[in-house]
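Saturday, quiet lab. Running sequence design on the structure tokens for the scaffold JK sent over.
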């Protein structure tokens, strides 16, 4: 038992050391920019009112701007996190960044999570509400607005009805995964979606590492 505990402790320390090392150098691995992503979203919003055409516009624009780093084939998977439920299409994911289209056709709400990363949520369709501890008024984000959740912060958010957004996170993405999968173990037991989520993330990460990007 002592040997197992020692081995586990060594593994945890090693992983922590690696993640701290990556965090200190993460800026050089970033490919995407939140302002550019908002411009891409605005162009798609202004070009069409059709949801699928909007998604296609975003993926095609990003694939042209960031060749080799964007998945243009739609592959949707359910995501339950912080009590909220929606579906996501992973356009890009790596150790330091992810870009997804996330949304729901019927509304949802929950906890944003408190991450070791910055999150940028650009509304494409519908609206998102949010508030922080101590707030007495809700924040309202409409199509084209970008909701920035700084590293270490958390909010209660709600998509009152149909809503889709282009989401971009930058930081140590593996540290976000426990929040993203906890509801599977303690609520939904949807291990099919869990498997698909990890399979997609692993596929993207391997591709990015082969391209020299963390």
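Result came back. Writing it out in full:
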């Amino acid at each position: 038992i002592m040997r197992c505990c020692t081995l586990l402790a060594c593994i945890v320390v090693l992983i922590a050391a690696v993640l701290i090392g990556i965090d200190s150098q993460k800026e050089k691995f970033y490919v995407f920019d939140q302002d550019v992503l908002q411009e891409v979203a605005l162009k798609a919003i202004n070009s069409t009112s059709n949801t699928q055409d909007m998604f296609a516009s975003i993926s095609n624009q990003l694939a042209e701007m960031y060749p080799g780093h964007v998945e243009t084939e739609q592959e949707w998977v359910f995501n339950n996190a912080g009590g909220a439920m929606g579906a996501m299409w992973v356009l890009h994911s790596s150790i330091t960044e992810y870009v997804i289209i996330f949304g729901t056709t019927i509304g949802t709400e929950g906890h944003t999570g408190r991450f070791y990363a910055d999150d940028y949520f650009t509304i494409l369709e519908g609206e998102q509400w949010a508030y922080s501890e101590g707030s007495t008024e809700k924040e309202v984000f409409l199509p084209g607005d970008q909701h920035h959740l700084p590293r270490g912060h958390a909010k209660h958010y709600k998509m009152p009805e149909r809503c889709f957004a282009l989401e971009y996170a930058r930081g140590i993405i593996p540290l976000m995964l426990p929040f993203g999968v906890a509801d599977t173990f303690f609520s939904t037991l949807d291990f099919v979606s869990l498997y698909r989520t990890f399979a997609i993330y692993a596929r993207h990460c391997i591709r990015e590492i082969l391209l020299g990007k963390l």
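Notes for JK: The chain has five helices and ten strands. The two ends are 35 Å apart (CA to CA). Ask whether to fix the surface positions before the next round.
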